[in-house]
Design goal:
Catalyzes the GTP-dependent phosphorylation of 5-hydroxy-L-lysine. It is found in: Cytoplasm. GO terms for molecular function: hydroxylysine kinase activity. The two termini are 39 Å apart. By secondary structure, the protein is α+β, with helices and mostly antiparallel strands. α3 crosses α6, α6 packs across α9 and α7 packs antiparallel against α8. It has 2 domains: 105 residues, Phosphorylase Kinase, domain 1, CATH 3.30.200.20; 231 residues, Aminoglycoside phosphotransferase (APH), C-terminal lobe (Aminoglycoside 3'-phosphotransferase, Chain: A, domain 2). It is built from 9 helices and 10 strands. The strands form 3 sheets. Strands 1-2-3-5-4 form a 5-stranded antiparallel β-sheet, with helices on one face. Helix content is 42%, strand content 16%.
């Protein structure tokens, strides 16, 4: 969660100069794309082609090795047929460049990459049919499978032990619980964290380890219309939360974020699970903790978005919309209970005929 002063704010002319100097390309059009912590600029070039100039915030720019590993991971997925962006090498053959710029807070260093532009709309804007949900589950599993082949001398940078967005870090949320002071939901969140510590942590040795994308959510998946009047996945974005975790974490994150976009959240789990299991069937321990991991992800989203509102009141409206939906889903799942929710998920996954 970047502080305001770390976010880059390159002007169009500064961006144009960077593209010319580093990549020998002439920008004919530059416009801003949404980004939470970084600066993303759409760039069309005279030479032909569309790109995204990604300028990382000055805090994350310090972790050059981590960004390098993320960039190589994107390339690996692309080589294996998944729609991830790839970085265009600079004229000196580097995947990224460190640029010094004064964005109003003194001269700071920013990591800059020119990534391929992926067409499509975010999945949050598309109708979430069971078939499309199945595809997200299948793609998430395939992605984690491919990431197992990732090679780099410093893969250990992905062991981000105190990384607040990792599903291994749920107990760290206790430090932020005061954002729920006076809210009855605080008890639910406390309870979920308690269950996580007492019933999940002891079982974790039975989960299969892997490298997670870590944020396969409704704004990081792009889709395009297909020939059958449905949609197909056309892009996987934002590898900034990559970390070493467990297969079951990726699935829980995917289910949670798809729920936020669906009128009947509980119905999401079945098709996503069916898609996932068409690639990687779950083991007993993973199946048993899926419900708790989905609740844990909801708690992460709610606690950290409220905390961010305190830091950045200017983003309050956007963050609280997401939060409101999350509160409704958390309450609903909590009141239904593990047995009922699992019954819906597992029965519908079993019946899902592809």
């Amino acid at each position: 969660m970047a502080q305001k002063h770390t976010k880059p704010n390159f002007s169009p002319s500064q961006a144009k100069d960077v593209v010319k100097r580093l990549f020998r390309l002439t920008a004919s059009e530059i416009c801003s794309l949404p980004s939470y912590d970084d600066q993303n600029l759409y760039v069309a070039v005279v030479e032909g082609g569309e790109y995204v100039l990604k300028i990382m915030n000055s805090e994350d720019s310090k972790n050059q090795t981590l960004v390098e590993v993320q960039t190589i991971a994107m390339s690996l997925l692309h080589q294996n047929g998944l729609p991830a962006q790839t970085a265009l090498p600079t004229t000196s053959g580097q995947l990224m460049s460190v640029e010094e710029m004064d964005c109003g807070y003194g001269c700071q260093k920013y990591l800059v990459r020119l990534l391929t532009y992926l067409p499509g709309i975010t999945i949050s804007k598309a109708p979430l049919t069971p078939q499309l949900l199945y595809e997200t589950g299948k793609t998430a599993a395939r992605m984690d499978q491919i990431l197992q082949e990732l090679q780099h001398p410093h893969l250990s940078v992905l062991q981000r032990e105190k990384f607040i967005w990792s599903l291994s870090s749920v107990p760290l949320l206790e430090e932020y619980l005061n954002v729920f002071d006076g809210d009855p939901l605080q008890e639910v969140v406390k309870d979920v964290i308690h269950q996580y510590k007492t019933t999940l942590v002891p079982k974790r040795s039975n989960f299969r380890k892997c490298i997670n994308h870590g944020d396969f959510n409704d704004l990081n998946i792009l889709v395009q219309p297909d020939e059958t009047d449905g949609y197909r996945i056309s892009g996987i974005l934002d590898f900034g939360d990559m970390n070493t975790g467990y297969y079951i974490h990726e699935l829980a994150i995917n289910i949670t974020h798809m729920m936020k976009e669906h009128p009947e959240p509980v119905e999401v789990g079945g098709p996503v699970l069916a898609g996932w299991e068409s690639v990687i069937p779950l083991n007993e321990a993973e199946r048993d903790r899926l419900y708790l991991l989905v609740l844990s992800r909801l708690c992460q989203l709610l606690v950290l978005s409220r905390y961010t509102v305190k830091l950045h009141p200017e983003n309050a409206e956007y963050l609280m919309i997401t939060s409101k939906r999350g509160v409704h889903i958390l309450r609903h799942l909590w009141e239904l209970g593990k047995e009922k929710v699992e019954k819906v998920w597992f029965q519908s996954a079993a019946q899902f005929s592809h």
